[in-house]
Amino acid sequence: MLRRLSYGQTYVLLAALLAVLVVASAAIGAFSFTPAEMVRHLGAAAGLLPAASADALSRNVFLELRLPRVLLAGVTGAVLGVSGTLMQGLFRNPIVEPGLAGTSAGAALGAALVFVFGSSTALSFTAPLGSIAVPVLAFAGAFAATMLVYRLSTSFGKVNVFTLLLAGIAVNAACAAGTGFLSYVARDPQARNITFWNLGTFTTADWRGTIFVGVFFVVCFAWSLRYGKALNALMLGEDEAAFLGVDSRTLIFRLLVVNTIMVAVATAMVGVIAFVGLVVPHVLRILKSSDYTFLLPGSALLGAVLMELVDIVARTIIPPAELPIGIITAVIGAPIFLWILLRQQPQRGTGATVESGAGAGFYG
Amino acid sequence: MVDVVGVTYRVGGPGGPRILDDVTARFAACKFNAIIGPNGAGKSTLLRVATGLLRPSAGEVRYGVRPVAAFRADELARTRAVLSQHVELAFPLPVEDVVLMGRYPHYGPAPTSRDRDIVSRALELVGMVEKRRQPYPTLSGGEQQKVQLARVLAQIWNLDGSREHKYLFLDEPTTSLDVHYQLHLLEVARDLLAHNCTVIAVLHDLNVAFQYGQQLFVIHDGRLAYETSRPSDISAELIERAFRVRATRVGEDGHTAWRFMKTDKAGPIPVRRSPP
């Protein structure tokens, strides 16, 4: 049914769905709000309505805890959705996403380094960076991890799926070990714990973090929109893209940087959330199209939609406790991941991919 | 015309193996230029240097009087198009979206109605209009190649009377096509010659090359071994030397063709493995 709609109509539909979910997500939770209360709190915050003192607690919870959290969830979902789309375009494979290719884990390691050692002598070089030390080191870690996986899995312009997955596993494991070690030795109660890094959570959301992630997302997303056509051309292969005027080396480098910035900033705020970047473009490909000029805006919207849903579930499934986000995304994402992998087999299994490269070493 | 002037190409920088050795060739304007030669002779490399994809280690390629290196990437993409042997797609894009890619160098964020129109006409030309909404990966190899032909035609579309000179490069384009569509493809390419377009093709079927080539280039061992504007000049001796086959001309005047038999005297020919 989505196939009958134009791209524009699909965006409108997804945006409407997102709006409904944002309102629902803001209303539902340990503290629930009626629409009238939400309007009153927003009005008071904007100075349009008088702030009733009887409302103070409810207003604070809504404005300082609930609202930034709901928005952070949406922006994070958009970041991960767009990132999955960009990475699948660059690797020319539907099995890639920031959680699997090491981007998120590398970012987490970089951010954890600052959280744990930020004030000690070992990382004193980050002191002049001040509060941007976290995103800067998160970016460094994410970029190093992603480039490593990209280099290992690419030979002669073709991506080997086996090497990609294996390199992703190795890089993820190494980064997770580093992050685990850091949260184990951390004495600072402010240092975030290992569950945060591995499974992600929005409980620490505040306005500062939300705006930070939001600004980076908007800039990176707007910039990446220019490359929809180039990503489509890259589907044909690097040489064919070059014949169409696309310099694939520059394209790949630029988009990896943009992608890494977005993911690093979001990961430093909410931890590693896997599978969203995998599921979102996949669903859009099935429902609508693999055209990147559509997938980029589409995955931003659907990513936000999915993350609002996941966050509602996380907050309501075992009250008063809260489930880490990554558990829910893995429950949805892992079966889809396996399904894509199995569907790739007939094409890949008979080709040279299995006999040569990492496959041979792995099975031999 | 395309001028290849003193081109040497080495793999992996200076000191690497030399694939092309001081090749100078002039591909005639608005003619069907056919490049032939045995496996590993450097035909495809020559073609790729001529398209501007590979930068020669020495020498220069010029389109008209302008060096190919002086073109901006998008400008070059509007001037010449390249049809490769086989193009795979990992994602299920519909046929018309693939053909529309040929128009990418011509439009900004959204295609114009002219771009859409050219896509339809290119699909008509290759006989794939009915399958325009079908996902590309579900097509047969031959159908995929027709779609790619439509894509490169759309890229250098000149049939609505544009005065700009265009170049079409074909790299062994007929491998996956049955004999009818082999000839169809080459005839579509030949029809472009009347529309201000130069065709440069690497062909491995010698009879096809002699039939369609108006200018013939024999590449052997990284060098231009022979060049002629009269394919009937090609001698049995030249074919034997370049391809290690015994060649006999069969048929009557005007309908001649060559028949080949492998000569074993020279020992096994080192055949490069072709991609799957």
What's a concise summary of this model?
Chain A is an all-alpha fold and 364 residues long. Chain A contains 16 helices and two strands.
Secondary structure layout plus pairing:
The complex is a heterodimer of chains A (364) and B (276).
Chain A (H helix, E strand, L loop, with lengths): L6 H21 L7 H12 L9 H36 L11 H15 L15 H21 E2 L2 E2 L1 H25 L8 H6 L7 H18 L3 H7 L3 H6 L4 H23 L5 H12 L4 H25 L8 H25 L2 H4 L1 H7 L1
Antiparallel strand pairs in A: 1-2
Helix pairs in contact in A: 1-13, 2-3, 3-8, 3-11, 3-12, 3-13, 4-5, 4-6, 4-11, 5-6, 5-11, 8-11, 9-13, 12-13
Chain B lengths: L1 E9 L7 E10 L4 E5 L6 H9 L6 E6 L2 E2 L5 H7 E4 L11 H6 L12 H14 L14 H15 L10 E6 L7 H14 L4 E6 L3 H7 L2 E6 L2 E6 L7 H8 L1 E6 L6 E6 L14
Parallel strand pairs in B: 3-8, 3-9, 6-7, 7-8
Antiparallel strand pairs in B: 1-2, 1-4, 4-5, 9-10, 11-12
Describe this structure in words.
The complex is a heterodimer of chains A (about 375) and B (about 280). Chain A is mainly α. Chain A has one domain: ABC transporter involved in vitamin B12 uptake, BtuC. Helices cover about 70% and strands about 0% of the residues of chain A. Chain A contains 16 helices and two strands. In chain A, strands 1-2 form a two-stranded antiparallel ribbon. The longest helix of chain A is centred in the first third of the chain and has 36 residues. Chain B has one domain: 3-Layer(aba) Sandwich (Rossmann fold), CATH 3.40.50. Helices cover about 30% and strands about 25% of the residues of chain B. Chain B is globular and about 55 Å long.
